[in-house]
Amino acid sequence: MSAPVLSVRNIEKSFGGIQAVRGVSFDVHKGEILGLIGPNGSGKSTLFNCILGQLAPDAGEVHVTGRNVSKMRASDLNKLGVGRTFQQLSVFPKMTVLDNIILAGQEHHGTMLSRLFGPSDAGLTQQAEQLISFFRLTHLRDTLAGSLSYGQQKLVDAAMALMAGPSLVLLDEPAGGVNLTMLANLKERLVTYNAEHGTTFVVIEHNMEFVMSLCTRIIVLAEGHIIAEGKPEEIRANQTVIDAYLGG
Amino acid sequence: QETMKLGMVAELSGPGAPAGTNWRDGIKIAVEEINADGGILQNKVELIEYDTQTDPQVSRALVQKAIDEGAFAILGTIYSGSTMVNMLVAQQNSTPQFVGSEAPSIVEKGNPFVYRTSSGAQKGVPALTAYFTDTLKAKKVGVAWVNNEFGKGGRDVFVEEMKKAGIEVIADVASEQAQTDYAADVSKLKEANPEAVFVYMNQEESARFLIEAKKQALPMPLIGEVTLTEAKVIELAGAAAEGAIAHVGVTATATDVPGIGDFAKKFEETFKRKPTHDAIKGYVGAWTTKYVTELVGKADGEAFAEKMHGLCLKAADYPKILLDTCWDENGEMSRPSFMVQVKDGAPVVIGTVPAN
Amino acid sequence: MSQLLQVLLSGLATGSIYALVAIGFTLVWQAAQTVNFAQGEFVMLPAFFVLVAMGYFGLPFLPALLVGLVLSVLVLGVLFKKLIAEPILPHGGITLIIATMALGIFLKESVKEFYSAEAQPFPSMFPNDPIDIFGAVVSLQDLFNLAISLGVVVLLTLFLNRTRTGRCMQATAQNPAVAEILGVDVKRMILYTFLINAALAALASFLITPVYLAKFSNGETLGLIAFIAAIVGGFNQIRGALVGGLLIGVLDNLTATYVTAQYRAALPLVLLIVIIMLRPQGLMGTSEGRSV
Amino acid sequence: MLELKDVHGGYGKITILNGVSFSVPKASITTVIGPNGAGKSTVFKAIFGLLNIQSGQILLDGKDVTRQKPRQMIAHGVTYVPQGRNVVPQLSVYHNLELGGITSPDQARVRERIEKVMDQFPMLREFRNRKAIELSGGQQKQLEVARALLLDPKLILIDEPSIGLSPNLVQEVFQTLMRLRDNGVTILMVEQNAKAALAMSDYGLVLELGQTRMHDRAETLLGDPRVGQLFLGGHVEGIA
Amino acid sequence: MKRWLRPLLLVLLLALAIIAPLGQGNYIVYTLTSWLIFSIAAMGLNLTLGYAGQISLAQASFMAIGAYTTALLTLAGWHWVLAMPLGLILCFAVGLLLGYPALRVKGHFLAFVTLAFNTLVFLILRNEEWLTGGSYGLVGMPRPDFGLFSTMKQLPFYYFTLGITVIASLVMWGIVRSPWGRAFKALRENPVRAESLGVDTRRITLLAFAIGSVYGGLAGALITPLVQFIEPGSFGVGHSLRILLMVVVGGAGYFFGPFLGAGVVIMLPEMLRFTAGYYLIIYSALVIVMLVFVPSGLIGIGGRLREKFRPRREVRADMREGARLQ
Ligand SMILES: Nc1ncnc2c1ncn2[C@@H]1O[C@H](COP(=O)(O)OP(=O)(O)OP(=O)(O)O)[C@@H](O)[C@H]1O
Ligand SMILES: Nc1ncnc2c1ncn2[C@@H]1O[C@H](COP(=O)(O)OP(=O)(O)OP(=O)(O)O)[C@@H](O)[C@H]1O
Ligand SMILES: [Mg+2]
Ligand SMILES: [Mg+2]
């Protein structure tokens, strides 16, 4: 079997006395859709931030397709084909929706210099417009992203993560605030990507219906540890998980 | 009767404002008197004011503007940095220019149209040397100066003079323009303990220096050029100014010189404050413009320049020149000067120095 | 030895003055998240109120101080807030910063045109008697300045962190939208901030001017140095202003005495840059927290 | 209790609400649903005085409260929990909570209530002295919800409380809301988690394009196939 | 704005700039020239601050570097055309250097570091007399002579500056509308997110400083032959603040903002000079009033006026698609 797309080894991170992540290890293989769930404050987002270079972990290593990327900067990691979203809305508020999405793709085309002298949209308008219309935002194409509704911004955020055609995407709560119908579309799109391009996904989400129907495998985090791991139906039945997280 | 325009270009705002406004007000009095006296060549004089904001680039633009608007002579500027720039413009237009700047370099550029209204540092400071050698009999001295083109000019001349006189400069203390804290400066001087200190700074800086010197009880005599004993400095420094000595080109305190006394009185009545050195300079500049233009007989820059060089005006014939004054072929001025000391809160003339 | 002591003590004395002005910066930052670039002029102006009260209305010194304080609070507090801060604040910090720069010019030039371009002496609230400490000299005034800036720091810190009003002011600065939703009287909190700032500026003015002399252009350098002191101390802590101010005062004097007078303005800056690079949140400041 | 009559309003020159009318009876829970960008949050802002209302009327207990300021609305007994993150970043958790009761004249009671909500959300007690910004997304949301419970409001406007909360906490919040309703508090809520929300609600309201489309009892809406198809994810549309 | 309106407006503006100095006195021409030069400096700062969101209070020091390099070289007999690029290269390098702190500190800390840098440059210019002439400055730099076209006189020098301004603007236009421009804005709005989308924020930050500095340097290289005298005092912190004022007053982050801003900051005092001593008071008051009423800068004034006199209501964009639930 080939090297896992993402391999997380023994990551630890604490913030002045609070141990947010305490030695987490797992592998994700090509084509998987992995769910990452757990109570609030269990360290999920912190783990993402450690994996993707936004935070420096206190210990541990991260490998992407066999390569140690622990010290790599987020932009370089992104160029390797790793995309992500953040839990908190993070569009560029004073840029148009179209510009937001083109930006997400432009750094993957050409070199720094060729971008200066090439076309101003790096030839990406069409591709961006497709994504925009998929997320039903066509009428907002030239609106500043900051004046979109919460759910709409969430969609732009997701579109940005998908724009560069990454091979591994980490999504932090993609469903929060998104209308159920649109969410079904999003799920469909992720599954299609996964099937057609073999894109691997890791998804943090509190919407259990979404997670359970989307993911092929689920990891449950609590207080910085992995407390359970398995197929969706196993997790749903796991008493520890029910007590810690799902509730009665 | 026509009017003749005088362009007053000076530092009316920015750090140079105190000097500039005094310069302006001195000129205002002169212009009033000149007009009362029939103007220049029977023409009424109109004074146009231009504010350089103490910015050399602006000053250059304004000298240009004054000339564009028909000024036949320029009065200003005071800060040497500005004068260095704008005198080029006046030169290009053959317009005579009286400046208040004292930096040596101004008259070293071979510009025939620029004239001083007081001696430059390279004349004023050497006039002091005798005081250090003969009166104080000093062997080791210190110098405290403000690090701008004014202070640097004075300091350079002083150090040179001392070398010539065989006196050692054992403390050389630079301070910033608008500096407020002189503790370090004074303590350095105290540590070096020279026999006298030459203080070359602008007004408030001088006052703050004197205050700190008194606080730390600096024991040696403090000697300055022009500023150190000015009325303003004494007002600001209060008791701390007591005993300070300065060489002064022309001082409003020399009231026994008739022209000076009259001017000082008129100035105080009009502006409710005592005239400074800069006010007298402006006054003299404006009057000289009148005298020389009338000597030439027409408003002509070239002829004016011709006349100015090597010109000597006697106070007896030209009373508003205040003291017998000569200009050399570079536009440098010389006239008798005074040594002044602060006694009981007032400057007192303690000696005169002949023109050099 | 006595020279070193002298330099240190003098540095502390000057530093306490910087601190007093710097506190204004941190206060306005903590309570309105903006920088008042006219802070130096805010400190320059009250002394002139007093001079006018004494010179034109013939009031004795102490009542004139009181008049100066009241006028400062009205002009630099109420008017400033109503006419400038309130309309511009919602449009972001940088716009207000520029507006305060323009305000600085306005105040400076007004004083110059309507009062005087020349420096004026200003009476001291405290006796200026020199006190000899092992051969070094400080004045009583210096000691008072130090004590007062210390006191102000303690009081303000307590006020901002220990009272509900203080916390409402912080909430207003950090997230005005939320403060408004929770029912905080946002406008009033901003008013408080500027009132306190104005009163502080007046106090600083009365303490500083006897030494610095009253001059329209005093605010320029003072404002700049205090701004630097506030940053170095850590903008988001009142006590940072004290530490920053004292540090700059001492460093400046040490540099001028022992290293270089020509570059005395530079060396402290370079040292401070090093500090900032090592501790990006400032000496006393705390980090602003998670960003992802 | 609350009544909107043909409200029009928006941001700048764009009109977002094109005639919103509905009324909410006292001591009931009404859930607002609709696609993203329908104007749900905008309606809340309009009620709470945060929106430029062009025309129409908002009545609270029969009194006209159109264009009143947020502080006045709080005085009328209305509280509002906006969408997204809304904490004061550099203040501690405890002081954030305290701000929730800042308008109350009875601070002793507020302190008591803070202890109570900290029992309900134990995380808050554990982290009471930490800066709010340091909390995780869901923890911040708990803080916000808890903060809204400190006064005795008559009407709570709560915009998507479930975003970021773990399932057990969502249940906890819903139960709290139901308890409040049983004590006579009126609740108006936006939720995308619509099946669960409608299940606990008395009424449902469907908003689209800034207009009220349907307003009915919650069970009726849940059973309506069109609603299910369009807004509850019952059907996947063709992918563009 | 209609599609043809913008190019038409641009042509009109350029024509205006060409005829503006005709028949004017030397003084007006001089002032117009310094307006162009400061527009260039402000354009650079607008890139650093307005587009990329990096506060810099050191633009005047880059003008100094450009001005002194050009001055020293032209005094040594070089032609301006050769001296100027050297100044720009130096500015680019120093700008990169100044960008490094920006990688670590943000906001007011960055403001401080740049401010300190400006002070440092000022002190070096003043103290290193052997090179820079110290506080006496450098004087007598020639204006460039291109054989047939000599810029010695005021008017030709204006056209020379205008030409350079147009070129500099075109280059800037190219930069901000390229993907770089988008990356600069992304850096301003959300650096963390930008980094996660593959934007090399380090490089972009450094570039924002370096390019902005080059424009400062270019302005300096033009000041030298314009004034023919330079001294440290003209490049102090106060002047950096003045350039900042131009950017914000004009409209930070808008392409034409710097031109408007520089126009106001330089021309308005000239126009107010008739008020004698009061002009700075009036001027500063006007700036404040302007910021109160159009906080986004003068560039926003057109929109504000249109809004005021022809208030329009727009329906929401998705209305056209129609409702799905009837
Ligand atoms: N910068 C920080 N400073 C201090 N504490 C932090 C910081 N970042 C995270 N924490 C703490 O670390 C723990 C884990 O936070 P994290 O954001 O990873 O949780 P999470 O699993 O994503 O939770 P949620 O589901 O609510 O988003 C929390 O207790 C949080 O308070
Ligand atoms: N501040 C704003 N400025 C301009 N337009 C805005 C602003 N906020 C929202 N809008 C627009 O108003 C419309 C309604 O937004 P609103 O936030 O009310 O939607 P919503 O129904 O709450 O959606 P969601 O489910 O995504 O939260 C959207 O089309 C949005 O683009
Ligand atoms: Mg999280
Ligand atoms: Mg919403």
Summarize the structure in short.
Chain E: It is a multi-pass membrane protein. The complex is a heteropentamer of chains A (248), B (356), C (292), D (240) and E (326). By secondary structure, chain B is an alpha/beta fold.
Characterize the structure shown.
- The complex is a heteropentamer of chains A (248), B (356), C (292), D (240) and E (326).
- In chain B, helix 5 links the parallel strand 6 and strand 7 (168-175).
- The longest helix of chain B has 20 residues, at 17-36.
- By secondary structure, chain B is an alpha/beta fold.
- In chain B, the strands form three sheets. Chain B has a seven-stranded mixed beta sheet, sandwiched between helices.
- Chain B is 42% helix and 22% strand.
- By secondary structure, chain D is α/β, with parallel strands linked by helices.
- Chain D folds into two domains: 1-77 and 153-172 and 184-239, P-loop containing nucleotide triphosphate hydrolases (Rossmann fold), CATH 3.40.50.300; 87-151, no CATH class.
- Chain E is 71% helix and 3% strand.
- Chain E has 14 helices and five strands.
- The model of chain E has no long low-confidence stretch (mean pLDDT 90).
- The chains are: A alpha/beta (248), B alpha/beta (356), C mainly alpha (292), D alpha/beta (240), E mainly alpha (326).
- Chain A binds chain D through residues 15, 38-41, 45-46, 87-89, 130, 133-134, 140, 147-152, 154-155, 173, 176-185, 188-189, 192, 206-208, 245-248, and chain D through 11, 34-37, 40-41, 83-85, 123, 134-139, 141-142, 160, 162-172, 192-194, 230-237, 239-240.
Strand content of chain C: under 5%
Largest interface, Cβ cutoff 8 Å: A-D, 43 and 44 residues
How many structural domains does the protein architecture of chain E include? 1
Strand element count of chain C = 2
> What is the multimeric organization of the chains shown?
heteropentamer
> And the CATH topology of chain C?
ABC transporter involved in vitamin B12 uptake, BtuC
- Secondary-structure element string of chain C: HHHHEEHHHHHHH
Topology overview:
The complex is a heteropentamer of chains A (248), B (356), C (292), D (240) and E (326).
Chain B: E1 3-10, H1 17-36, E2 44-51, H2 56-68, E3 71-75, H3 80-92, E4 97-99, E5 114-116, H4 121-135, E6 140-146, H5 149-165, E7 168-175, H6 183-192, E8 196-200, H7 203-215, E9 222-225, H8 231-237, E10 245-248, H9 258-271, H10 277-296, H11 301-308, E11 312-313, E12 325-327, E13 333-334, E14 337-343, E15 346-353
Parallel strand pairs in B: 1-2, 1-3, 3-4, 4-5, 6-7, 6-8, 8-9, 9-10
Antiparallel strand pairs in B: 10-14, 11-12, 12-13, 14-15
Helix pairs in contact in B: 1-10, 2-3, 4-5, 7-8, 10-11
Chain D: E1 2-11, E2 14-24, E3 29-33, H1 40-47, E4 52-60, E5 63-64, H2 70-75, E6 78-81, H3 93-100, H4 107-120, H5 122-126, H6 137-147, E7 155-159, H7 167-182, E8 186-190, H8 194-200, E9 203-208, E10 211-217, H9 218-223, H10 225-231
Helix pairs in contact in D: 3-6
Chain E: H1 5-19, H2 26-51, H3 59-75, H4 80-104, H5 107-127, H6 129-132, E1 138-139, E2 145-146, E3 149-150, H7 154-177, H8 179-189, H9 191-196, H10 201-227, E4 229-230, H11 237-250, H12 257-272, H13 279-293, H14 301-309, E5 314-315
Helix pairs in contact in E: 2-7, 2-8, 2-10, 2-11, 2-12, 3-4, 3-5, 3-10, 4-10, 8-10, 11-12
The structure holds adenosine-5'-triphosphate (ATP) (2 copies) and magnesium ion (2 copies).
